[in-house]
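Whiteboard transcription, Tuesday session. T.W. wrote the structure tokens on the left side:
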């Protein structure tokens, strides 16, 4: 009889222990959830500021960031909480959506709960045209639709290769474009030849059209520094009137320069 009472007493104590244990556990869980919720409310993003933009609308960037932050893991731990959001992920997503953006820096102002986005947009080096026209930056990337007719203010490049390019693609290798830019600047500064338009043919081969009517032929394998030297020798070898009758000069070979004169009637 005494043993039976003792077992009932122990069983009751165990039951009371588990009741208190689960009660305390629930209280702690509720307190934790409440704290997270309060923390989320206290550090919820208040404002998104965008600077450095000209081509890209600040409103479009802010809308994109807001949409990204709306997809938090769960409501009590929202992505729009300035403590938990990832500037790296936001920057990567924005760059993938806006091809005109070259660089992006994101800082979090914890005190004022502000996300500060500073962007550097791509420069317009030329207008590149195939089926459509786009602005081309100095790294060879097409990044924004452009008008087909732009006058002589910007170099216009017509691409005649049978390739499909999309917004954000690299259409000319950065190193090749850097050399091509140096050559165009060189013949303008040293020889007063101004390149108005250009064509890209398979290879790629580049046909540069000077304002005098002369066509200059280069390709991807050209030694552009040597080509510039050869062009100076070529232009110094003929009087100005004779140069005006030239159809093209081929500078693709280091030790030879080929040229053709226009027919005289």
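and on the right, the sequence the group agreed on:
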């Amino acid at each position: 009889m005494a043993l039976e009472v003792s077992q009932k007493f122990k069983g009751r104590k165990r039951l009371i222990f588990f009741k208190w244990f689960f009660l305390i556990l629930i209280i702690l869980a509720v307190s934790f959830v409440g704290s997270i919720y309060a923390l989320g409310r206290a550090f919820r993003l208040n404002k998104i500021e965008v600077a450095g933009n000209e081509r890209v609308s600040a409103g479009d960037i802010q809308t994109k960031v807001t949409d990204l932050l709306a997809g938090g893991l769960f409501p009590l731990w929202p992505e729009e909480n300035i403590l938990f959001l990832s500037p790296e992920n936001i920057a990567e997503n924005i760059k993938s959506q806006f091809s005109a953006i070259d660089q992006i820096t994101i800082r979090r102002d914890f005190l004022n709960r502000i996300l500060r986005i500073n962007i550097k947009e791509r420069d317009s080096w030329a207008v590149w045209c195939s089926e459509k026209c786009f602005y081309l930056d100095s790294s060879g990337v097409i990044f924004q639709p452009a008008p087909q007719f732009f006058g002589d203010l910007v170099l216009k490049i017509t691409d005649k290769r049978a390739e499909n390019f999309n917004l954000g693609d690299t259409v000319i290798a950065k190193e090749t474009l850097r050399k091509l830019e140096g050559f165009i600047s060189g013949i303008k500064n040293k020889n007063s030849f101004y390149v108005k338009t250009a064509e890209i043919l398979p290879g790629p081969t580049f046909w540069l059209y000077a304002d005098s009517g002369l066509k200059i032929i280069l390709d991807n394998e050209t030694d552009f520094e040597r080509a510039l030297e050869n062009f100076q020798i070529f232009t110094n070898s003929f009087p100005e009137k004779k140069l005006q009758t030239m159809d093209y000069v081929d500078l693709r070979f280091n030790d030879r320069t080929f040229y053709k004169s226009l027919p005289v009637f």
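Someone added at the bottom: The longest strand covers residues 101-109.
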